[in-house]
Amino acid sequence: QVQLVVSGGGLVQPGGSLRLSCAASGSIFSINAMGWYRQAPGKQRELVAHITSGSTTTYADSVKGRFTISRDNVKNTVYLQMNSLKPEDTAVYYCYARLITVDRPYPNDYWGQGTQVTVSS
How many other CB atoms sit within 10 Å of the CB of residue 110? Predict the structure, then answer.
């Protein structure tokens, strides 16, 4: 069994910063990739940032230069540092991990609970 526990999020003024964390635990053999999606009201879920086990990163164009994804492979944790936040960043942010568990020899995607990020003055 795998759990992804998300922390961070909240209300911040435009131009402010927030940091999200997502820790994976359970019967994990290896983690191939971790990342963040977000979903704003009335919109589809979109990829925000993705990081592989080799630390190759991918970002949505809308967050490049403002958000930074990183991971701690020892702690099985992924972080999303969000700077220069804009009202359009308001959404529920979801963490995911593509990983292999000790009882399955192929990768599956697991999701954490969403966390609300609201950017407003």
Answer: 20
Q: Which residues contact 83 (CB under 8 A, 6 or more apart)?
A: 17, 66, 67, 68
Q: Residues 53-76, buried b or exposed e (16+ Cβ, 10 A)?
A: eeeeeebeeebeeebbbebeeeeb
Q: How far apart are alpha carbons 51 and 36 in whole angstroms?
A: 9
Residue 16 C-beta-side C-alpha neighbours within 13 Å: 15
- The set of residues, in sequence order, having a beta carbon less than 8 Å from that of 54 and lying 6+ positions away, is none
3-state SS assignment for residue 65 = coil
pLDDT at 50: 97
- pLDDT digits 0-9 by tens, 18-64: 999 999 999 999 999 999 999 999 999 999 999 999 999 999 999 99
> How far is residue 43 from each of residues 26, 96, 104, measured CA to CA in Å?
32, 19, 34
**Look-up of token digits 């609970």:** 113
